[in-house]
Amino acid sequence: MNADLTKITENFLNEMKNNEGVIGVWSFGSAARDMSDEYSDADIVFLINGSKFKETEKKLEAVILGICDDILICYEEEFNGESIINNGYLIEKDNNIFQLDIFLLNNDRKDDFICRIHYTDIFERDILFDPMGYVKELCGNCPHGSLWNSNVSKLFTTYLYHFYMSAKYLARKDHFKLNNVMRKLFETHSSLLLSLYDSIKWGGEGNKLNFIPAEKQGHLKKYFCCEDFTVDKANLLKEIEYFQSDIEETVQSIGTKNYTDTLDGVKKFWLKTTAKI
């Protein structure tokens, strides 16, 4: 996080501490993982006294305006409700734009699933404010993340089914349907790789993929549809080779059946269907 945003965050935190509804605060996101850089935004979770939850939510915008020149955008998550408020703000300060992701967590509903996500694997080092020990108590009873776990057989059938579909969209030169199929292939191949290489128990797919081998990360980057169908075809041919290698490595590690014959048959049909591309 850059120095200007750090200062803004400190000012915001100091103002929020004066709100009687705030009973605890901790870092979230990249800052809590020691992974923040100059491009990182500020992610802060405020534990709110249940009786003051609505009141604190109403005051939030005024507090933010007090530490910046203007609020340009407030992005409200769809899961916002009685348990948690998660708003993303783009704020302007001294002719620069900064991102603040603010979470208000209702202490009376802290056991709700959506709340528990936001204190999974919390450590005492993440605490920013805890005068009555509520956050420390969460640290001692927090849920824990898990490594990626997928049904490899389902991934295999999903991938080949959609790879087969990509042939007709290439042959038709249907850019938009091909794009949708390639996104599905990317998601499926990503899940397969995470089944092999996931090593972190926090974050979603986007976080976890940064920790798979760099070479494998490069393979996934060819799943994005472009306007040149010959390039798309060449990329998909490369991708199914990578997928075949990865599925063979996966099934070897888990002792599952051999998938080679099915994959080779679909690939042969695919090449025939796309021969004119």
Structural write-up:
The protein is built from ten helices and six strands; from the N terminus they run H-E-E-H-E-E-E-H-E-H-H-H-H-H-H-H. A six-stranded mixed sheet has the order 3-4-5-2-1-6, with helices on both faces. It has helices at 3-17, 53-65, 113-116, 134-140, 152-172, 175-197, 205-209, 214-220, 229-254, 260-273; strands at residues 22-27, 42-48, 70-76, 84-93, 96-106, 127-129. With 277 residues, the chain is an alpha+beta fold. Helix 5 runs antiparallel to helix 6 (175-197) and helix 5 (152-172) packs parallel to helix 10. The chain has two domains: 3-140, Beta Polymerase, domain 2 (2-Layer Sandwich); 152-273, Four Helix Bundle (Hemerythrin (Met), subunit A).
CATH uppermost class of the largest domain: Alpha Beta
Written as H for each helix and E for each strand, in order along the chain, the element string is HEEHEEEHEHHHHHHH
* Helix/sheet category: alpha+beta
Shape: elongated
CATH topology term of the largest domain: Beta Polymerase, domain 2
Largest sheet, strands/sense/barrel: 6 strands, mixed
Instruction: Measure the end-to-end span.
Output: 47 Å
Q: What is the number of independent domains?
A: 2
CATH superfamily of the largest domain, by name, is Beta Polymerase, domain 2
Number of strands: 6
Mean pLDDT: 90
Q: Going across the major beta sheet, what is the strand order?
A: 3-4-5-2-1-6
How are the secondary structure elements laid out?
Layout: H1 3-17, E1 22-27, E2 42-48, H2 53-65, E3 70-76, E4 84-93, E5 96-106, H3 113-116, E6 127-129, H4 134-140, H5 152-172, H6 175-197, H7 205-209, H8 214-220, H9 229-254, H10 260-273
Parallel strand pairs: 2-5
Antiparallel strand pairs: 1-2, 1-6, 3-4, 4-5
Helix pairs in contact: 5-6, 5-9, 5-10, 6-9
